[in-house]
UniProtKB/TrEMBL annotation, chain B:
Function: Part of the Sec protein translocase complex. Interacts with the SecYEG preprotein conducting channel. SecDF uses the proton motive force (PMF) to complete protein translocation after the ATP-dependent function of SecA.
Family: Belongs to the SecD/SecF family. SecD subfamily.
Descriptive protein name: Protein translocase subunit SecD
Family annotation (PANTHER family): PROTEIN TRANSLOCASE SUBUNIT SECD (PTHR30081:SF1), PROTEIN-EXPORT MEMBRANE PROTEIN SEC (PTHR30081)
Domain SecDF P1 head subdomain residue range list: 152-247
UniProt membrane topology term: Multi-pass membrane protein
Organism: Candidatus Nomurabacteria bacterium RIFCSPLOWO2_01_FULL_46_18
Length: 286, 438
């Protein structure tokens, strides 16, 4: 799935919105101003991609679209009923180069800090008095595994959105970026809960002097947290479904993105992160 | 009796929250002291349009981009959160190009202050004197800066830091400037190519010092020695550190603008939130029974506290901010679910309800703590390094997670101990267990 998503990003490319690309700003004055929703539906019918309409003063609308060609501009003005054009200019992106570089830096910093934190919080896992076979892996590998699961959770919804962008014109805007950040937060949260159970079971084993294969300890931990994982995801899922069906059109894509993120995040904590721990363990034993 | 103490505390807490809820409601009436501050996308605000004078700049695009960054930073520093700053290039219709900057500020409060603050941003430039300066001045004593000096391209956009310095001999205040990497290189090039010429430092259109270049300067540092008083020097340094403009700008219009997502979107969002919350509550109560009911009460407390914090800070609520809030609600629910699942396990082991409560809380605590610390780390870093929209998301997520730890642990716990029976009967056990079984 990860590879498939990465592959999808290559030919289709990101369908960036005017938040990132910049576009055109048109301010028009109406004799009698139509409703904002009416203007929106008229522009939407033209299929020009993402746009935004905001009222200004008593009779004006400020409309942001992508840069239109001369022909498109004519069709655009006709669709609006040929109001008086006050200004029509090209505009730069809201999210400029600075935002991009800062966002990348922030995400890298977050990933590093999470690895460090998990390494610290799980520092005792491998120093128990258990024999090697039941001790498991050292704590930084928990951190690394959490990050791999996280990348999986972020890359797949992005890939799906790229494909959707290609076929039905879903655009990547600033809200999409915050959505990815939310998935990132949830993914780590969910993975840590499962790892915490592994940590606890290892401790119990060491206190009881039970010798148990690491593989079995991990499996037991996953099944013990299964009920919680499903119920928690279900509750968030319910909230997001409400946002998707009842919320406004503007947040529909956003809700969809989060729903995918939650489902994939839950899936990866159970079926990706935990098996990976065992894989690391087996590699280490060789 | 332990559990009587919990009953008293619970009753007081409940009363407190009824009060806080009332506070939320009355503060939503017009003219309230702590209204919610909504972002540009949800309620609109004021739009300021500045015209930039780019006649002396060769790299117009680069200058406009750095202009955008400086203004964005400056507006953010002064507490107007989540502004929308965009460059605009006019001339699509008329033909001659005019560069503008659109600054959208959420809400309509403090607009005069914002205009004033943006107006105080200094314009810093380094210019070389033309070789025949003296002749030009002789011919025209009123010659302008443009006639006397040629731009070097070195401007406020390359400034990384300014500090106040004092001359150890005379005690006179001066302003030390440090350039960033590109600026240092440009400064080296200019100083090495023009030894012996005059390099004027021009601030807000006035020459404040015009030293002769003695030697190549390659460490990227410069000093402005004017006749500053220490206070003036400090003020200038503060303004320069908030960002110096590469080109002068003038305010051309300011107007009130509506929201992009609009009231419809806001109402739909609130409705979605309420429906989601009701379904979620039903699920929790049906699945977790009595503890589920307690967690719903705790969640309501959680929402009340968060909303009050959003009002008091105030946090600008935008679509991105609401995303952070939704995520934190999820985490608040998770804390409760973790505790209840743990209780169920303990009950299965045959422990009494009271013991199961104790064990459930103490065992779930570690995972709640660690998973929430990781969320707080994420929120702090994103807030620290991110820009507008990302910051808004990080702030609501951070506040939400911290409040949720408080409510999930302290409030749910107190309430549960208050309703916990001292003796176990099958029917009471039924109320405290969960799932589809008996």
């Amino acid at each position: 799935m990860v590879i498939l998503s990465l592959v999808a990003m290559l030919p289709f490319g990101f369908n960036m919105s005017i938040d990132f690309k910049g576009g055109m700003l048109t301010e028009v004055t109406f004799q009698e101003r139509p409703l904002q929703s009416a203007v929106e539906s008229r522009i939407a019918a033209l299929g020009l991609g993402g746009f935004s309409v905001r009222p200004s003063g008593a009779l004006n609308y400020i409309i942001r679209t992508r840069v239109l060609t001369n022909e498109e501009r004519q069709i655009f003005m006709e669709a609006l009923g040929n109001p008086v054009v006050d200004r029509q200019n090209t505009i730069g992106p809201v999210a400029g180069a600075e935002l991009k570089s800062k966002a990348v830096k922030a995400v890298v910093a977050v990933l590093l800090m999470i690895i460090l934190f998990i390494t610290f919080a799980f520092r005792k896992v491998s120093s128990t008095g258990l024999p090697r076979a039941s001790r498991g892996v050292s704590s930084w590998k928990y951190g690394l595994t959490a990050i791999i699961a996280l990348m999986h959770d972020v890359i797949i919804p992005t890939g799906i959105f790229v494909v959707l962008g290609h076929y039905i014109g879903v655009e990547i805007d600033l809200l999409f970026v915050t959505g990815l950040l939310a998935i990132l937060g949830y993914s780590v949260h969910d993975t840590i809960v499962v790892f915490d159970r592994v940590r606890e079971n290892l401790r119990i084993n060491s206190e009881m002097k039970t010798e148990e294969d690491f593989e079995i300890t991990v499996g037991k931990s996953v099944s013990q947290t299964l009920g919680r994982s499903i119920n928690t995801s279900l509750t968030i899922f319910i909230t997001l479904l409400a946002l998707y069906f009842v919320g406004s059109a503007a947040t529909k894509d956003f809700a969809l993105l989060l729903i995918m993120g939650i489902v994939i995040g839950t899936y990866s904590s159970i079926f990706l992160a935990s098996p990976l721990l065992v894989t690391f363990y087996k590699l280490q034993r060789r | 009796m332990r559990s009587r103490k919990h009953i008293y505390i619970s009753a007081i807490t409940l009363l407190l929250f009824v009060g806080l809820g009332y506070f939320l409601v009355i503060e939503e009436r017009p003219g309230a002291r702590f209204p919610f501050s909504f972002g540009l996308d949800l309620v609109g605000g004021t739009e300021l349009v500045y015209t930039a004078d780019t006649s002396n700049v060769s790299d117009v695009g680069g200058a406009m981009e750095s202009l955008k960054e400086v203004i964005e930073r400056r507006v953010n520093i002064f507490g107007v959160s989540e502004p929308l700053v965009q460059t605009e290039s006019a001339g699509l219709v008329s033909g001659h190009s005019v560069e503008r900057l659109i600054v959208g500020l959420p809400g309509v409060t403090n607009i005069d202050k914002a205009i004033e603050l943006i107006g105080q941003t200094p314009v810093l430039e380094f210019r070389l004197a033309k070789p025949d300066t003296q002749k030009i001045v002789d011919a025209n004593p009123k010659a302008s800066i443009d006639e006397l000096f040629t731009p070097t391209g070195l401007t406020g956009r390359y400034l990384s830091r300014a500090v106040v310095e004092f001359n150890p001999n005379t005690g006179a205040a001066s302003v030390g400037l440090e350039f960033d990497k590109d600026g240092s290189k440009l400064f080296t090039d200019v100083t090495s190519a023009h030894k012996g010429e005059v390099l004027a430092i021009i601030l807000d259109g006035a020459i404040i010092s015009a030293p002769v270049i003695v030697d190549e300067i390659s460490d990227g540092k410069a000093e402005i020695t004017g006749s500053f008083t220490p206070t003036e020097a400090k003020e200038l340094v503060r303004n320069l550190n908030y960002g110096a403009l590469p080109v002068p700008i003038t305010l051309s219009t300011s107007q009130i603008v509506g929201a992009t997502l609009g009231e419809v979107a806001l109402n739909a969002g609130v409705r979605a939130g309420i429906i989601g919350f009701v379904v979620l509550s039903l699920f929790l109560i049906l699945w977790y029974r009595l503890p589920g009911l307690v967690s719903v009460v705790a969640l309501i407390c959680y929402v009340i506290i968060s909303l009050i914090v959003f009002k008091l800070i105030p946090v600008t609520l935008t679509a991105a901010g609401l995303a952070g809030f939704i995520l934190s609600i999820g985490m608040a629910v998770d804390a409760n679910v973790l505790i209840f699942e743990r209780m169920k396990e303990e009950l299965r082991k045959g422990q009494s309800i009271y013991q199961a409560l104790h064990e459930g809380f103490s065992r779930a605590w570690l995972s709640i703590r660690d998973s929430n610390i990781s969320s707080i780390i994420t929120a702090v870093i994103l807030f620290w390094l991110g820009t507008s929209a990302v910051k808004g998301f990080a702030l609501t997520l951070g506040v939400g997670v911290m409040v949720s730890m408080l409510t999930a642990i302290s409030i749910s716990r107190t309430f549960l101990f208050a309703v916990a029976p001292a003796t176990d009967t099958p029917s009471k056990k039924f109320l405290f267990s969960n799932g589809l079984h008996k």
